Amino acid sequence: MRVVIAPDKFKGSLSAPDVARHVEAGLQAATGSNLDVLRIPVADGGEGTLDAAVGSGFTRRSAVVSGPTGQRIRADFAVRGREAVIEMAAASGLAVLPGSPAGTGEGGSGGRADSASAKSATSLGTGELIRAALDAGCRQIILGVGGSANTDGGAGVLQGLGARLLDADGADLPPGGAALARLDRIDFSGFDSRLDGARFVLASDVDNPLLGAEGAPAVFGPQKGATAEDVAVLDSALTRFVDALAAEIGPRALKAAAAPGAGAAGGVGYAAIAVLAATRRPGIDVVLEFTGLADRLAGADLVITGEGSLDEQSLLGKTPLGVARAAARAGVPVVAVCGRTTLTAEQQKDSGFRQVYPLTALEAKVELCIAEAGPLLEQVGKQIGAELADLTRAGTAPAESARTKEPLNV
Fold first, then answer.
1. Are residues 8 and 101 in the same domain?
2. What pLDDT is stored for residue 101 in this prediction?
3. Residue 5: beta bridge partners?
4. Shared-domain flag, residues 276 and 308
5. 63, 176, 218, 263: which could join 208 in a potential S-S bond, CB 3.0 to 4.6 Å?
6. Is residue 206 part of a domain?
């Protein structure tokens, strides 16, 4: 019997590879290690996208780049042939702000974002990672955005690729979104010429524009430590950035500011669309494509997916639903594991899940579910292993069996 385990991360607890590993351990313990198990970590284009790439045949590379507040850090990216996957959070994320547990594989939850970092954080390191990918010979680059610390409109990305942001005296601006209030012009004379032959995909489900009430500063700035006053400052500064960019590249800079996705990752989506001519695609679609999930489901008897919280947002194109749809197309039953769920039985059924296994059915205290997610997932894996015959029986209708599992007798 063949089982495919394709989960997203349990945010603040376990990475996707670790989730898959713990579930497999439970499965094998219940079945006497007689299963053919394929682990395929997946993601929605944000944090965890790099792990998904490495788990699907990409090679992990690293480069020393600028962190969100200018500190030098080592950040990873992934390469397969001429294709690269860059996870923005690795270089410009909240998790690599000074004072954060950078690099904590199981459970790094973010840095110490405040008003100062909200205004000064830069996406420079992401631009430097793109340059490292170009150095590695890559010309097809996937930008996985999410978890960013910056609200600089992607100005830092452009600086990392050789552009200069100058004030009225011709001096280079310091990094960060707030500094763009003093922007006079942008000098592209040193812009990396290899970009002319590169193609970019912006893997993002965010459809916010750059500016205004639904823009990056207003919607996402507070999550990064911005006060109401900071939001106004950043929105004004980014407006100046758009005008300066339009003076250099023409009307497409103005059009891009209103494009869906321009507000992604503190406005990195804007720079990617306006300058790098990036194509925006749903993150889960991009990840499922480069992992080859559809082809790897051939011959599978069961798919196990999941994420930390299975809720109404999960129904809006997040990872578990994307995997469930792929499994449905392949005719393979699918179940979900999660830390907790708020989905009704009807929503679970409509999503295609035969069953949902929340850790809160084992441990009611959410904080303990987070701290002990690994052992709890192994218990869930044991239960799934014990129920494989029922879960994979031909003709078992999801409408009849979809439900949230009760606590295990362990």
1. no
2. 54
3. 39, 304
4. no
5. 263
6. yes
Q: What's the CATH code of the domain at 127? A: 3.90.1510.10
Question: Which two structure tokens, joined as six digits, stand for 1?
Answer: 């019997």
Domain housing 174? 57-283
pLDDT at 404: 55
Identify which of 199, 146, 204, 160 has the alpha carbon closest to the alpha carbon of residue 63: 160
Q: Is the separation of the CB atoms in 18 and 372 below 8 Å?
A: no
What pLDDT score was predicted for residue 406? Answer: 46
Residue 389 is predicted with a pLDDT of 78
Looking at residue 21, its amino acid is R
Residues 237 and 95 in one domain: yes
Q: Given this model, what pLDDT does residue 34 score?
A: 79
Kindly give the residue spans of alpha helices, DSSP state H, lying in 224-298.
Answer: 228-249, 252-257, 268-274, 283-291, 293-296
Asked if residue 323 belongs to a domain, the reply is yes
| Residue 181 located in a structural domain | yes
| Interaxial angle between packed helices 373-386 and 16-31, expressed in degrees from 0 to 180 and rounded to the nearest 10 | 40
Total of domains in the chain? 2
Q: Where are the alpha helices (DSSP H) in 6-146?
A: 16-31, 49-54, 88-92, 115-120, 124-135
Residue 248 · residue 274 · CB < 8 Å: no
Q: Transcribe 68-97 into DSSP letters.
A: TTS-EEEEEEEEETTEEEEEHHHHHBGGGS
Residue 294 one-letter amino acid? A
Segments of the chain with pLDDT less than 50 = 102-109, 395-403, 406-410
Q: What is the pTM of this model?
A: 0.89
> In 3D, which of 176, 157, 128, 153 has the Cα closest to residue 244?
153
Judging by DSSP bridges, how do beta strands 279-281 and 199-203 pair with one another? parallel
Residues 325 and 276 in one domain: no
Query: Which pLDDT does position 315 carry in this prediction?
Result: 79
Q: Is residue 408 part of a domain?
A: no
**What contacts 309, CB < 8 A, 6 or more positions away?**
11, 338, 339, 340, 341, 342
* First-residue to last-residue Cα distance in the chain: 25
Say whether both 89 and 189 belong to one domain: yes
Q: Which two tokens stand for residue 39?
A: 């682990």
Both 227 and 341 in one domain: the answer is no
Do 75 and 116 lie in one domain? The reply is yes
Asked if residue 373 and residue 233 are part of one domain, the reply reads no
